[in-house]
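Input/output pair, single chain:
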Amino acid sequence: MKYDQLAKDILQNVGGKENVNSLAHCVTRLRFQLKDESKANAEVLKSMDGVITVMQSGGQYQVVIGNHVPDVYKAVVYVGGLDAQTPVNTKEGEKKQGLFNRIIDIFSSIFTPILGVLAATGMIKGFNELFVTLEWFTRESGTYQILNAVGDSLFYFFPIFLGYTVSKKFGGNPFIGMAIGAALVYPALSGISGGKPLYTLFTGMMFESPIHITFLGIPVILMSYASSVIPIIFAASFGAKVEKGLNRVIPDVVKAFLVPFLTLLIVVPLTFLIIGPITTWGGQLLGQATLWVYHLSPLVAGLLLGGFWQVFVIFGLHWGIIPIGMNNIAVNHMDPIQPLAFSAAFAQIGVVLAVWLKTSDKKIKTLGIPAFISGVFGVTEPAIYGITLPLKKPFIISCIAAGIGGAISGVFGSVNYMVGGLGIFELPVYVSPKDGITAGFWGAIIAMTVAFILGFILTSLLGFKETTKNEEGKNEEKDKKTSGLELFSPLNGEVKLLSNIKDAAFASGALGKGVAIEPSEGKLFAPVSGTVSALFPTHHAIGITTDDGAEILIHIGMDTVQLNGAFFTPHVKQDSRVEAGQPLIDFDIEEIRKAGFALTTPIVISNQDQFTITTINEQRVHVGDHLMRWERR
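Output:
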């Protein structure tokens, strides 16, 4: 019930449940197929608490939620009375999508339901090989055998699992799809190919095939379908179409058993005779083609794929690449393509960390840590949609860092040997089952480290522009360069020269060089990041020492020490760490003025002799505006 209201609001703003053709979810987003996308209200959805953003891509209306998307999905299905088993596309929807979007939609729909288990089993297999390399146990041990069985359980029998999701996607009986997949990996058939062939087809050609069995006198080209991807996609989708055709002509009284009976009797033999061999050869050609492109220049391939990977993620286009990697593992027992994008998640979290340390935006502060943690584990959508993409420059920086990380992976020849975990848990799949830890493994570690550090440093140096609300409620962009030598306005109000204020000590510059602000709002924010070096008992003044040693003094009002702390509410303590933009002190403007005190607030660098200080000339400032710069002498 925690997400029931959010689910109701989402349904209402996608046009109501009557506008939903189907609903699925992946790691971070709800994937709607809507009858009419114009009925959805994207702006309202984006503004909801619990929704990161909205994307329209791949023929899907995607509502990005974050890591708790499974719970929100269940709530939407429950409150909307939706059938989670409903096939995704109507014929009208297919025409509207177009071929390219249709392909992306198919891949995302059939792989996302099993992605978590696929990652889990791949991690187990990867760790198993790592433990053997570390000599914790041997491949002959029972421990290795059992863990290997768990690790191989899904990928070896991949056709069975994909048979379920493909059939469901195309509106067929998922269990018929599973039966087709099970027939493809039937152990007895795979054992036949080891004997002497009856004869050979296509002798001397690249498709030369020994024939060991026939079906009704027709030669059967036996292939190894264990771990395969492409054959079952074609077979199960064809099976769904056959099933639909039989459902239209077979009487209801015998449909329950006769439709599956005839579907399997038609589809399985045709798969072994035609669909399986042709699609297997196609998969082998696809694998060789991708390796050929990769070997033209692994460095350039890594630079391009790594650099654009996060762009692909935004539009869901990465689903056009992931199956290629899976096919490479099935055909070649390794894949060099997906490792090129491995460092993208770490580039993203390096940028997020830099943004989080500098930003004064409360929403970004709140989202930053969860987005960082998600990125460590390979889920970058919260970071992309919630932080870096809205800020623009940080997203570009993350792409640059990811591209360099991808180039490093390419130069080191990093490959993965199984489909495994995401983020940091992907590392074990780079351990070779044959050679253990190789240069490719170390290349992956170097790539992720460089991408993270580069993303952090570039964002820290180049900064970003942050949109904030001014007093009139309008958006304003604030340039957040993180040089550590800048002071941002801690108040909304009008700037005054220190020499023009009534306090002689501040006006003379004896207490430091800076400016004064006549505040229009009783809220004081940290103008820099640093440590609270002085918080007066009366809470009318505060000192902050920055990391580079600048001592900032802020004095709220003139002679307000006489109020003995009345009308001042501090939010920090002596010696506590503060970040730029963090609330420091609230003060009641009206009551202070009624008590007869001026609110002119000096902001000065008290150890001015150590720095060259430059102040701004603007007359009016808002929280976050540049106020001063300083350089050590």
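The longest strand covers residues 513-519. Confidence is low (pLDDT under 50) at residues 85-95, 469-475.
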